[in-house]
């Protein structure tokens, strides 16, 4: 069967990891702008990499350092996007997933009118994309919450943030109604309990009951997602709104029924944020979990109506690796993954950052998600971080990356042949950028090499890797030629 003829091949980036220009054209500070590079912490120690305190935030606010806070500089996509889009076009991109930085439009999140310079920037960016026949897929919240809202309201823990997010989204819908058809509400919405500050602006050491606060923040994001889905459909006829899940595919560590149960429970909690956005209601098993954990979510009857009446149109997800679970963690060798620490599968290789490589897991994930939700799917993040070497001739021989993608594409196509309705695929990331968790440049994902090191030194010149031409061929043949 193969992929649909209008399959959306492309790549995915986030504003906070590429744009830079952190204090240009009226932009305000976001939570990403205070994320520091921690060279003295093991890159596999995820918990320490993402930890943040009020003292850390205060120090960052007083600093203008772009070495310690790499997301402030990114790769200067803000000024270089015509060059980067031209390279994406050369590869044959049909689409590019990107985000709109909330603080470019509303610097503190509480302004009553949008920043016109911010709107003009994205208007120009979208115009260039359409000139190159690259369809935008826009994420409205991709770890870029205004820092002012985190400090004043403890982020999404406060219900008042819902209306502020609505205002931001409606400003985007009205400004870009002729530019953008596909919208995503929250990036990896399930991540609130893994990195509450990055995902929801919650400052852990200023929070009395963290678990309670995290799930309250979830609820506020669910309501906000439903409200902006409704607004998008009303403002942009024919628009499509999707949710975005971190697909943390988990297997039992053994055939011991207790391991099977442990894995089932972990997968249930991973699915639940997408369940709410797709089905418009909380799963009964999750409500039971709340009761057992004494988690009391403040929600109104109107909230439940909004959720039920405004489900998303399609489901998107990130997939990087799989892990295993056991009823007894002493049975596991722990390793890191995409914003988590979990059991390492002894049957699978790992990257330099400890992430397992599991192409078959992508096919399993597609089958699980389509069977569960029966809505069109899109893979909007998938890739591997590696330490690439730039030769004196400005080449990067990354056969390991080609091998990774080839294996994943083979499994993706098998899932489509099995009946999965898949709209598209966007790699993370098509160009090297500042890594989300470790704030490194040396953890490289792209088909395009950016000459910048972990401290921001380098020319910022762009160079095509070997994988560039390979992906170009894959797109040109719509996945028929993976050799």
Your description of this structure?
With 483 residues, this protein is α/β, with parallel strands linked by helices. It has a single domain (8-476), classed as TIM Barrel (Alpha-Beta Barrel). Helix content is 40%, strand content 14%. It contains 16 helices and 14 strands. It has helices at residues 15-18, 46-50, 54-61, 77-91, 102-105, 116-131, 147-153, 160-175, 196-200, 210-235, 257-279, 284-292, 301-309, 359-373, 399-417, 466-476, and strands at residues 8-12, 95-99, 135-141, 182-186, 240-246, 249-252, 314-318, 322-325, 334-336, 341-343, 377-381, 422-428, 448-450, 462-464. The protein has an 8-stranded parallel barrel with strand order 1-2-3-4-5-7-11-12, surrounded by 4 helices. The protein has a two-stranded parallel sheet with strand order 6-8. Helix 8 packs parallel to helix 10 (210-235), helix 10 (210-235) packs across helix 13 and helix 14 runs parallel beside helix 15 (399-417). The mean pLDDT is 96. This is Beta-glucosidase. Belongs to the glycosyl hydrolase 1 family. Keywords: Glycosidase, Hydrolase.
Strand order of the largest sheet: 1-2-3-4-5-7-11-12
- The succession of helices and strands, N to C, reads EHHHHEHHEHHEHHEEHHHEEEEHEHEEEH
Q: Care to count the β-strands?
A: 14
Instruction: Using the alpha-carbon principal axes, give the shape.
Output: globular
| Domain tally | 1
CATH architecture classification name? Alpha-Beta Barrel
CATH superfamily: Glycosidases
Enumerate the spans where pLDDT stays under 50 for 5 or more consecutive residues.
Answer: none
**Gap between N and C termini, in Å?**
19 Å
Tell me the fraction of residues in β-strands, as a range: 5-15%
Radius of gyration: 21 Å
- State the secondary-structure class: alpha/beta
Provide mean pLDDT, rounded. 96
Biggest sheet character: 8 strands, parallel, barrel
* CATH third-level topology: TIM Barrel
Helix content range of the residues, please? 25-40%
CATH class: Alpha Beta
Query: Count of DSSP helices?
Result: 16
